[in-house]
């Protein structure tokens, strides 16, 4: 009888241990939940994103709870874009005059509201602190391993990593995000572009950045996006700068030109198909990571161009999100303000069943 009791107790202990272990295995980290969400929306809805949507808009700057997307549609975007260029210089505001303390607060708010954050970085060169658009100096070869400014560049990565790890909720949880480093490398306008470094030098820079942030700085809450511009027509061309599957979770494309130039809409869709095919082949997420039409001179753009791209069946069934650029009150805008002629067209596109704003995303996650 005593042996039987011991056997029962032992069995219960083993069962309890295995149950706890199983529950522990099923607990997802925030970044795993982010990836799962991006995968789950595929084929259900394309998430709509807007850069700096909380920070400013047409006629206003840093008004709590404000957003031009919300002013037009009644809801916030599902994806919130932020920029960290200038952080490495130790200044208080980024190159678009948004304070880094505000960006931190905005990103936490977006996360707590159920949205997704994506972060870009247009750094000032560590060599002479010229901006990202200054291509007079060959920077990349000097900051990758073996370069004269490699150690100095790692200090910039220290600053970046520390800031990313400071985006933390009141409960102490690091906010997950999509990091989109060294984008549009197939263009000629950045000091990491195709005329300023070789593809192998670029890959070394990309790998260094991701490895250092993850392994040295403990930035374990990020997914990484690979985002060339429109300068490719084949998978081979698209992958010219690709650092490797182990470094990337989001397969993307930035494309402005094809979406506002007459006759090139089909090209934009074909290129997105290339992006989608590679993402599906490698089990990754695909996205239109940056687009827009500056000041919207074509008031129908949101329906006739972006809406047409997102209506393509393969695009609609596969990409997870599309993000348009910012509304700078002093310079330009890429999403209409309520009085602009394009506002009804943007509202119509965003009212589509398969194009999702924040409430659509949170409702989907709560099903």
Describe this structure in words.
The protein has helices at 2-26, 30-41, 68-73, 100-112, 140-143, 150-164, 199-216, 235-238, 257-260, 265-282, 301-311, 313-318, 343-350, 358-365, and strands spanning 46-51, 56-57, 60-61, 79-83, 116-120, 177-180, 222-226, 250-254, 285-291, 321-324, 355-356. It is α/β, with parallel strands linked by helices and 367 residues long. It has a single domain, classed as Glycosidases (TIM Barrel, Alpha-Beta Barrel). Helix 11 runs parallel beside helix 13 (343-350). The longest helix has 25 residues, at 2-26. The protein is globular. The N and C termini lie far apart (50 Å).
CATH topology: TIM Barrel
Number of helices: 14
Order of helices and strands: HHEEEHEHEHHEHEHEHHEHHEHEH
Helix content: 40-55%
Q: Indicate how many domains the architecture comprises.
A: 1
Which band does the percent of strand residues land in? 5-15%
Mean pLDDT: 94
Classification by helices and strands: alpha/beta
Instruction: Sketch the major β-sheet.
Output: 8 strands, parallel, barrel
Quick structural overview:
The protein is of the alpha/beta class.
Q: Keyphrases for this structure?
A:
367 residues; alpha/beta; TIM Barrel; eight-stranded parallel β-barrel; two-stranded antiparallel sheet; 14 helices; 41% helix
